[in-house]
């Protein structure tokens, strides 16, 4: 029953879309299920990169942490998304840290098995290239935002992005289904926690957003969009 569930799930992952049942079965045979606690480090920057992670449940934060402990969050991945592919392709160490934001269940593929899958199904390589290109464009956009947007604009834009990728419709708006502390949000927009606290207070007073137990709900999306620039 577990094997059937695994095969069904892998079929729904965009990376493996178009693969035959036999190919999915082959991947399922070599995939391993892993679980990480909330806050657990999945891998550190510069660790050997031998494993691809495919998220079944939970959220994972990809970030950079300086030797002094300063953190910049690059992206949050959720169900159906994958990470760790860069090191599998170039054979070098991990380029970032990966940390579970909540309990995470995922499937893992070893580098050798992933390479076999690519050789047999070149479409996988094309999909990986598409995702890498998208992530590179997003990184370029983050650099541009740091240069041209003030903290209010960066926070507004990040909240809208998170609502788009991890949002759940509720009666009063869209709730971001990621548990975010002010410090985590600050690391995502390249600002201090104090600055983000001030911005969130302003947005709350304006009734653009509301917060409850580290969950943020967006109520007036149009007003947030206007506040970006």
Automatic annotation (TrEMBL):
<feature type="domain" description="Cyclic nucleotide-binding">
    <location>
        <begin position="15"/>
        <end position="135"/>
    </location>
</feature>
<dbReference type="InterPro" id="IPR018490">
    <property type="entry name" value="cNMP-bd_dom_sf"/>
</dbReference>
<dbReference type="Pfam" id="PF13545">
    <property type="entry name" value="HTH_Crp_2"/>
</dbReference>
<dbReference type="GO" id="GO:0003700">
    <property type="term" value="F:DNA-binding transcription factor activity"/>
</dbReference>
<keyword id="KW-0805">Transcription regulation</keyword>
<dbReference type="GO" id="GO:0003677">
    <property type="term" value="F:DNA binding"/>
</dbReference>
<dbReference type="InterPro" id="IPR036390">
    <property type="entry name" value="WH_DNA-bd_sf"/>
</dbReference>
<dbReference type="InterPro" id="IPR012318">
    <property type="entry name" value="HTH_CRP"/>
</dbReference>
<dbReference type="InterPro" id="IPR014710">
    <property type="entry name" value="RmlC-like_jellyroll"/>
</dbReference>
<dbReference type="Pfam" id="PF00027">
    <property type="entry name" value="cNMP_binding"/>
</dbReference>
<keyword id="KW-0238">DNA-binding</keyword>
<dbReference type="InterPro" id="IPR036388">
    <property type="entry name" value="WH-like_DNA-bd_sf"/>
</dbReference>
<keyword id="KW-0804">Transcription</keyword>
<dbReference type="InterPro" id="IPR000595">
    <property type="entry name" value="cNMP-bd_dom"/>
</dbReference>
<feature type="domain" description="HTH crp-type">
    <location>
        <begin position="149"/>
        <end position="222"/>
    </location>
</feature>
<dbReference type="GO" id="GO:0005829">
    <property type="term" value="C:cytosol"/>
</dbReference>
<protein>
    <submittedName>
        <fullName>CRP-like cAMP-binding protein</fullName>
    </submittedName>
</protein>
<dbReference type="InterPro" id="IPR050397">
    <property type="entry name" value="Env_Response_Regulators"/>
</dbReference>
């Amino acid at each position: 029953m577990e094997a059937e569930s695994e095969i069904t799930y892998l079929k729904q992952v965009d990376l493996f879309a178009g693969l035959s049942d036999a190919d999915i079965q082959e991947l399922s045979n070599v995939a391993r299920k892993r679980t990480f606690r909330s806050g657990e480090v999945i891998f550190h920057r510069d660790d050997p990169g031998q494993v691809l992670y495919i998220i079944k449940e939970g959220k994972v934060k990809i970030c950079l942490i300086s030797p002094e402990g300063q953190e910049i969050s690059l992206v949050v991945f959720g169900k159906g998304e994958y990470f760790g592919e860069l090191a599998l392709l170039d054979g070098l160490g991990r380029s970032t840290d990966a940390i579970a934001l909540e309990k995470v269940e995922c499937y893992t593929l070893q580098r050798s098995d992933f390479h076999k899958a690519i050789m047999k199904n070149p479409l996988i390589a094309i999909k990986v290239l598409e995702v890498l290109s998208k992530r590179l464009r997003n990184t370029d956009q983050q650099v541009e935002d740091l240069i041209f947007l003030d903290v209010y604009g960066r926070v507004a834009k990040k909240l809208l992005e998170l609502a788009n990728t991890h949002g759940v419709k509720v009666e009063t708006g869209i709730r971001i289904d990621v548990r975010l502390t002010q410090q985590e949000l600050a690391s995502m927009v390249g600002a201090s926690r104090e600055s983000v606290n001030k911005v969130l207070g302003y947005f709350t007073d304006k009734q653009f957003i509301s917060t409850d137990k580290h969950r943020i709900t967006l109520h007036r999306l149009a007003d947030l969009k206007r506040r970006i620039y």
